[in-house]
């Protein structure tokens, strides 16, 4: 497990961009954390790191947002998703092959996520500090660890 703490939205976005830089099609980042933990802030950074120019907003009402890019990017918010079937019906699996995917509230749809997903649990330390616990059976782990040591 990699544990990182940030003390502002900007630092969280920076952490996201470090991760986003290395995402390729089929990579899934699974975010878990309560309301206001910083899932969308991290996602914004990830999109930035991937070179996505558009401003990323939470897809709470649309479930899935798609962004064009060298590597296409898909942002899922499972907060209002009632079942894994509902996300499947929204076309989730069709994106997995060609896109990098970030899922907020990933624990609600975990049976749809690949075993190689990169999991990030986010915990509030206090009003401005957040702890990110990053884990998973993916080559991204060692790549991110190496990159974080250089930052
Ligand atoms: N270190 C930090 N990193 C990120 N956000 C922080 C941090 N400190 C405070 N915040 C605040 O926490 C909130 C994070 O909001 P964000 O929308 O990213 O959370 P979320 O996990 O996506 O919530 P939701 O479950 O509603 O989608 C913002 O209001 C932000 O200002
Ligand atoms: Mg959010």
Description:
29% of the residues lie in helices and 25% in strands. It has 151 residues and is an alpha/beta fold. It has a single domain (2-132), classed as P-loop containing nucleotide triphosphate hydrolases (Rossmann fold, 3-Layer(aba) Sandwich), CATH 3.40.50.300. A 7-stranded mixed sheet has the order 1-7-6-2-5-4-3. A hairpin with a 5-residue loop joins strand 3 (64-67) and strand 4 (73-77). The radius of gyration is 14 Å and the shape is globular. The protein starts with a strand and ends with a helix. The protein binds adenosine-5'-triphosphate and magnesium ion. One of its GO terms (molecular function) is metal ion binding. It comes from Thermovenabulum gondwanense.
Strand content: 15-25%
Major sheet:
7 strands, mixed
- Specify the overall morphology: globular
Helix/strand order: EHEHEEHHEEEH
What ligands can be seen in this structure?
adenosine-5'-triphosphate, magnesium ion
Q: Widest sheet: strand order?
A: 1-7-6-2-5-4-3
Mean pLDDT score, rounded? 95
Uncertain runs are none
Q: Can you identify the CATH class? A: Alpha Beta
Structural class: alpha/beta
Helix-residue proportion: 25-40%
**What's the number of helices?**
5
End-to-end distance, in Å?
18 Å
Which fold name is given in CATH as the topology? Answer: Rossmann fold
Strand tally is 7
According to CATH, the homologous superfamily is P-loop containing nucleotide triphosphate hydrolases
Rounded Rg: 14 Å
Give the CATH architecture: 3-Layer(aba) Sandwich
Q: Estimate nothing, just give the exact number of structural domains.
A: 1
GO molecular function: ATP binding; metal ion binding
Keywords: ATP-binding, Cytoplasm, Magnesium, Metal-binding, Nucleotide-binding, tRNA processing
Main location: cytoplasm
InterPro entries: P-loop_NTPase (IPR027417), T6A_TsaE (IPR003442)
């Amino acid at each position: 497990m990699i544990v990182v703490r940030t003390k502002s939205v900007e630092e969280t976005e920076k952490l996201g961009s470090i991760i986003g830089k290395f995402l390729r099609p089929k990579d899934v980042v699974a975010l878990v954390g309560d309301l206001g933990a910083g899932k969308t802030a991290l996602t914004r950074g990830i999109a930035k790191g991937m070179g996505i120019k558009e401003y990323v907003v939470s897809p709470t009402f649309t479930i899935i947002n798609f962004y064009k890019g060298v590597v296409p990017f898909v942002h899922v918010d499972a907060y209002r998703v009632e079942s894994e079937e509902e996300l499947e019906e929204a076309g989730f699996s069709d994106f997995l092959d060609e896109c990098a995917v970030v899922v907020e509230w990933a624990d609600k749809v975990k049976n749809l996520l690949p075993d190689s997903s990169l999991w990030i649990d986010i915990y509030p330390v206090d009003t401005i500090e957040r702890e990110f616990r990053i884990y998973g059976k993916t080559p991204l782990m060692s790549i991110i660890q190496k990159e974080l040591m250089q930052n």
